[in-house]
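Model it.
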Amino acid sequence: MNHVDQAEMVALTNEAKNLSEAEKTMYGISYGEAFDRDMTTVEVAAEVRKTLRGLSKSRHSLLSGSKISVRSRSFAGGTAIDVEVGLPFDTTPEEGAIGRNGFPSVFNDQALAARAAAQQTLDAYNYDGSDIQTDYFNVNFYGHANIYELEGSNA
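Modeled.
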């Protein structure tokens, strides 16, 4: 096992912070546009919460009027950020609507677009260097955006 001293580790960390655009996509690692290696998962969750709540207050956003919940958690395998978005409109799909996987759709297009906007905000702070072929996971944090219809939404 290689021994890396403190000075080498600091140098490697500082070098990794200053990646060029070409290096950011090297080896299949993708970095979100807001990724910051120095931010903890708790700090990232706070930024995601702030961004999503700002979108929920905007009248011209897919998330306008939504209830936002962003929570971070730690566990033996890493950290995660859980985003829940309560939508203030009817999320029921048209009768007979089929989702992209061939099964009946659970949400309408507007609800799916709102979920995608929340997921995109979360992904902006993450990086992913995972390799599905070798079952290797390398992410800043695990995270998913979930949506639900708020009680009393116009149905």
